[in-house]
Amino acid sequence: ALALAVWVAAVTSSNPDEVRTLPTPVPLEVVGQSTDMVMSTDFPRQVNVTLRAPSSVWERVIASPGSVRAILDLSGLSDGEHVVPIQVQVNERPVRIVAVTPGQVTLTLEPLSTKTLEVDLARGGQPAVGYQAGEAILDPTEVVVAGAKSRVDKAVKARLALNIDG
Fold first, then answer.
1. Is the pLDDT of residue 102 over 90?
2. Distance from C-alpha of 125 to C-alpha of 159, rounded to nearest angstrom
3. Which residues pair with 107 in a beta bridge?
4. Residue 48 to residues 21, 31, 86, 133: CA-CA distances in angstroms?
5. Phi and psi dihedrals of 4, rounded to 5?
6. What is the structure's pLDDT at 99?
7. Residue 11 has pLDDT above 80, yes or no
8. CA of 90: how far to CAs of 72, 86, 159, in Å?
9. Does residue 124 have a pLDDT over 70?
10. How many Å apart are CA 156 and CA 145, to the nearest integer?
11. Longest Cα–Cα distance in the chain
12. Which residues face 97 on adjacent strands?
């Protein structure tokens, strides 16, 4: 028992644990989102991660930024507001996750919706001296908008503003 205690003390003193925050934020990866659902709220795209690890492991973590991943798993979520915890994975060992900021994300999922709208041309201005404006021909005459149902339902017109001044 005494030999084991001496060995643990020697290893710990030569390679002590350090608690540090990663020098750069970790990008937040969204996984498991249904293809017929869209997020209608903004959320942070990066998180700050604080880890506890021996100093030799810290060197490997910092040298390989991809060894730490932050994941937002939307698997199985239906429409509505959700509070989703952020999961952090670290490929290096031994490492303990001390803190993740933010630790969770509040977001709203809505069904994906599409709508076809006719394009309305709003022409303004005067052509340069010596020129005459002809009849405008639109091609295509319709556009398709897609997105969160609550936002697509508000779309009533697609307007193309064309300024022919000068």
1. yes
2. 16
3. 82
4. 7, 19, 11, 57
5. -65, -40
6. 95
7. no
8. 15, 13, 49
9. yes
10. 10
11. 101
12. 51
